[in-house]
Amino acid sequence: MIRAITSVLALFGFLFVSISTLANEGTIAFVGATIIDGTDAEPLEDGVLVVTEGRVRSVGPRSEVTLPAGAEVVDVSGKFIMPGLINAHGHVGATVGLNGNGGYDRANLLRQLGLYARYGVTTVNSLGGDEAAGFQLRNEQFTSGLNRARIYTAGSVVVGDSEQAIRDEVNRNADMGADFIKVRIDDNLGATQKMPRPFFEALVDQAHTRRLPVAVHLYYLDDAKFMLQANADIIAHSIRDLPVDQEFINMVTERGTCYIPTLTREVSTFVYESIPDFFEDPYFLKEVEPAIIEELSTPERMSRIAGSRSAQTYKAQLPTAMENVGTLHNAGIRVAMGTDTGPPARFQGYFEHMEMHMMVDAGMSPLNAIRSSTGVAADCIGMGDIGTLEPGKWGDFSVLTENPADDIRNSHSIESVYIAGNLVPNE
User: Fold this and answer.
1) Is 135 left (phi over 0), alpha (psi -120 to 50) or beta?
2) Is residue 79, in this structure, part of any structural domain at all?
3) Which of 148, 291, 294, 309 is at a distance of 20 to 30 A from 5, taking alpha carbons?
4) Whole-model pTM above 0.85?
């Protein structure tokens, strides 16, 4: 976390030099929209957003913002602007179609980051399975010419057969330049063996020695409490076995831990036991390959899922997961949007919108779901120059025709997406 903050400060220093030396070159002003800025502020009607060299230069009411001379003016009157969505737990690169081993390479990474971007997801925190190509793209994204989704990387999911092996694996990921360390304490409903608890304590200790936050894949309330005692930084999945209790709430509050529900991950385990409603959603159909729908709709596949113990267990536990989201949000805990998209049939881009819909169904207001998917998510992953539309931050945002703060399903009304002030290509 400290390393990430240091990087942000360095970038901000570059920003202010750039603005002062480049004057108004590369300046675009978006005028007249209602602006949702990703902070705790209420939406700003008839607002102006000015972006210079990829960064937000100014934002405010039309009556108070002076347009820089020579700025390109984009009339967005009657429309809505919100920050680019941040997936605090996703994956990029390894899947092609329904093949989970589709090849982790630069071309596939760029294809998927473009897909995320077209849905308004401008940053993906990739928690596990990252290889050299992902790290390289992460290193290339701090530029005003960017027009695809940003990626942050965790490297491999850390496992080992001794405390020293665990420490060595943490160091290997850190040496590659990982932004996070990812570990799994979930036993897949008893199907896999957990590492001994001292291994997890050694992992957190080594990660923090390398100044890296730890994200934990878990399922059980007891495991969550243990990892909090071990000082883990991010809970990367829902607690599903039990409702969270006051002890857990107190522990999360004291430590400032972030909670990422990944509700759509649970849905993905069982939803294909029949034909999902979203198979008829034009917003989904605009990007999906028809062959994938056909394969997911075969009677053989649906029967297999309907008879799957794990799928049906996840289905039965989904209400508990959703209840916990509402409880934690109401308790003031930082809940960040994440989906675990990337594996087969977890549809990148579309599922992020579905996740926001489910967060609202769990008790959040539409505006709070947006904040959880923008400013709160950025805060949770420690990236201070994205997530909100404030001066100095990257100009990552979407223009919508309908107000998502009135109805979260209006998030589907994205007309255009900008990353670093650049229009994202349609394909």
Assistant:
1) alpha
2) no
3) 148
4) yes
Angle between helices 350-361 and 309-330 (to 10 degrees): 60
Distance CA 24, CA 108 (A): 36
Amino acid, single-letter form, for residue 202 = A
- Provide the β-strand partners of residue 292: none
Q: Which domain holds residue 234?
A: 84-386
Classify residue 277 by its DSSP letter. G
Provide the CATH number for the domain around residue 193: 3.20.20.140
| DSSP labels, 131-150 | -HHHHHHHHH--STT--S-E
170, 202 contact by CB (below 8 A):
no
3-state class (DSSP) for residue 173: helix
CA distances from 133 to 79, 94, 100, 176, 411 (A): 37, 11, 17, 11, 31
Q: What CA–CA distance (Å, rounded) separates 389 from 181?
A: 28
Q: In sequence order, which residues have a C-beta less than 8 Å from that of residue 144 and are 6 or more positions away? A: 26, 53, 54, 55, 420, 421, 422
Distance separating alpha carbons of residues 108 and 197, to the nearest angstrom: 36
pLDDT of residue 282: 97
Per the prediction, the chain carries an average pLDDT of 94
18 with 61: CB under 8 angstroms?
no
Q: What whole-number distance in Å separates Cα of residue 294 and Cα of residue 298?
A: 7
Residue 397 forms part of a structural domain: no
Q: In what order do the strands lie in the sheet containing 258-259?
A: 157-158, 181-184, 214-217, 234-235, 258-259
Q: What Cα–Cα distance (Å) separates residue 107 from each residue in 6, 154, 271, 338?
A: 30, 20, 30, 24
Report how many domains make up the chain: 1
pLDDT of 357 > 70? The answer is yes
Q: Helix, strand or coil for residue 43? A: coil
In a domain, 167, yes or no: yes
pLDDT confidence bin for 102, thresholds 50/70/90: confident
3-class secondary structure, 80: strand
Q: 401 lies in a domain?
A: no
